């Protein structure tokens, strides 16, 4: 087997090396000790193999004459070959570890291996799909007889996979493939995948490992979900609320709690309700609201985004707290609410706790000029996803003129596009690997507005939001509402859950 890796790495042309490198993925088997994690690790290997084969197909590696002979005259091709050799060597090192394990294992240490029959049903379908793609892109049958060997340790397998993806990242940097070709190939990869469970599994496995595949799968998942939702809506439309009815119900929920009409409020809430992801009995939810009102808290609906298809509303609420006859202060809260059969069933909330602690006398209301509807036929869902992708890709300088008006008001502070970008870059600089993930999206084409719940992940490396970096990773959220005009955002209300961020960095709140 060692001779095989030597032959693979010593291939003269990059095309030969590429095809032999693809073969290396087929040598590996995983031990029975992987248990329930077998499917996940196998699919991560499959995604790596698919991504490598996609790169080869995108540059036409098996047909372009540049890649079929001696590459020494082309320094860029030589750099790419070095990356492929690194991948082969990583497999070779893993093989040596496998031999050592078998030679030193005791009777108590099983060397049994998993087979395709051990894959879960959905995983098996995806595994076979990825394998067919790679075979088609190799454009030949392997001339090397497979000599299978196994990896027995999950942590070591994870390290091997991480290293392979690191080399793939470098390969695509030193010899980038045409983006259009990559996009077409990815679309082809998932063109026949119409099962939501399969799409979700691809999305989860590809997350942070194959960003192009992850994005394409996420987009198709949303497309199919939308079609399924539309079908359900058609069947149950008589049970759904109109835009006006949804707004009326939310206004009634707010007014009844302000006025202490708890019996009426009960009729507007499902018996069981999700509050920030946790299930609550209706009685618990109302008891909490009653306690807040008795403590001097009232609410006023300021502005909203309505999605009748999802039966959802995002709303900005101005909260007023009265501590005494002479002390009164305001702050904003942004909620995302979903309704089933006309009653509140799911509620996610974020409030501006910094403003609350500061006890500011008043909170800025949304301008009456912004209450005017700006209907649009633009696909705001796709536009917003592209906007978030530009942030994650750090291509804001090149792309933000596509998404933003020359001046954007962020929490009532006017910013040029450059200043708005700088606001985002400040957090990216402070939090290494900061990633924006859309968890919930509410789109209102009739008003020209979008609202989202975003999840942020990363590792802080310097002080930000009054919290010093500790070396720990963080996970926190933002609720944000956008106003669009002629397809470009110009007004943003935002609340970032800074308390959760600070608590993860051991800051006392």
From TrEMBL:
Which InterPro entries does this UniProt record tie to the protein? Cyclase_SnoaL-like (IPR009959), HeLo_dom (IPR029498), HeLo_sf (IPR038305), NTF2-like_dom_sf (IPR032710)
Q: Which GO terms are recorded in the biological process aspect for this UniProt protein?
A: polyketide metabolic process
Task: List, alphabetically, the SUPFAM superfamilies matched.
Answer: NTF2-like (SSF54427)
Report domain Prion-inhibition and propagation HeLo positions.
6-202
A Pfam family matched in the record:
SnoaL
Q: Which residues cross the membrane?
A: none
Tell me which domain of life the UniProt entry assigns to the organism this sequence originates from: Eukaryota
Q: What is this protein called?
A: Prion-inhibition and propagation HeLo domain-containing protein
| Species name | Fusarium avenaceum
């Amino acid at each position: 087997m060692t001779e095989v890796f030597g032959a693979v790495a010593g291939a003269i042309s990059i095309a030969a090396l590429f095809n032999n490198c693809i073969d290396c993925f087929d040598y590996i088997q995983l031990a029975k000790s992987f248990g329930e994690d077998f499917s996940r690790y196998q699919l991560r290997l499959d995604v790596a193999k698919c991504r490598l084969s996609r790169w080869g197909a995108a540059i036409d590696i098996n047909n372009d004459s540049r890649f079929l002979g001696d590459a020494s005259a082309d320094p860029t091709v030589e750099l790419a070959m070095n990356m492929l050799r690194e991948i082969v060597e990583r497999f070779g090192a893993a093989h040596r570890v496998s031999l050592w394990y078998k030679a030193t294992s005791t009777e108590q240490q099983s060397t049994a291996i998993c087979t395709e029959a051990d894959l879960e049903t959905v995983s098996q379908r995806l595994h076979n799909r990825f394998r067919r793609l790679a075979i088609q892109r190799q454009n030949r049958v392997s001339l090397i007889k497979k000599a299978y060997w196994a990896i027995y340790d999950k942590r070591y397998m994870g390290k091997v996979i991480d290293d392979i993806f690191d080399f793939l990242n470098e390969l695509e940097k030193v010899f980038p493939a045409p983006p259009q070709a990559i996009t077409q190939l990815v679309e082809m990869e998932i063109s026949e995948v119409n099962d939501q469970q399969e799409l979700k599994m691809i999305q989860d496995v590809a997350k942070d490992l194959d960003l192009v595949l992850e994005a394409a799968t996420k987009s198709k998942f949303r497309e199919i979900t939308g079609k399924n939702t539309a079908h359900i809506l058609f069947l149950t439309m008589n049970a759904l609320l109109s835009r006006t009815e949804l707004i009326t119900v939310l206004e009634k929920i707010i007014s009844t709690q302000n006025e202490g009409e708890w019996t009426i409020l009960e009729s507007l809430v499902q018996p069981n309700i999700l509050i920030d992801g946790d299930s609550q009995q209706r009685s618990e939810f109302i008891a909490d609201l009653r306690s807040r009102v008795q403590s001097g808290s009232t609410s006023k609906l300021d502005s909203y985004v309505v999605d009748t298809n999802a039966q959802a509303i995002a709303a900005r609420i101005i909260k007023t707290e009265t501590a005494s006859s002479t002390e009164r202060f305001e702050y904003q809260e942004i909620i995302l609410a979903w309704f089933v059969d006309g009653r509140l069933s799911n509620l996610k909330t974020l409030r501006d706790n910094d403003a609350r602690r500061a006890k500011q006398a008043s909170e800025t209301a949304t301008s009456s000029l912004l209450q005017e509807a700006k209907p649009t036929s633009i696909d705001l869902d796709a536009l917003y996803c592209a906007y978030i992708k530009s942030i994650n890709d750090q291509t804001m300088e090149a792309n933000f003129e596509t998404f933003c008006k020359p001046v954007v008001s962020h929490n009532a502070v006017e910013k040029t596009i450059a200043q708005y970008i700088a606001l985002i870059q400040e957090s990216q600089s402070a939090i290494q690997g900061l990633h924006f993930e859309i968890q919930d999206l509410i789109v209102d084409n009739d008003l020209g507005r979008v609202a989202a719940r975003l999840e942020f992940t990363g590792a802080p490396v310097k002080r930000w939001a009054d919290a010093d970096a500790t070396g720990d990773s963080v996970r926190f959220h933002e609720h944000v509402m956008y106003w669009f005009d002629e397809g470009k955002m110009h007004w943003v209300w935002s609340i970032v859950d800074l308390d959760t961020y600070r608590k993860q960095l051991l800051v006392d709140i």
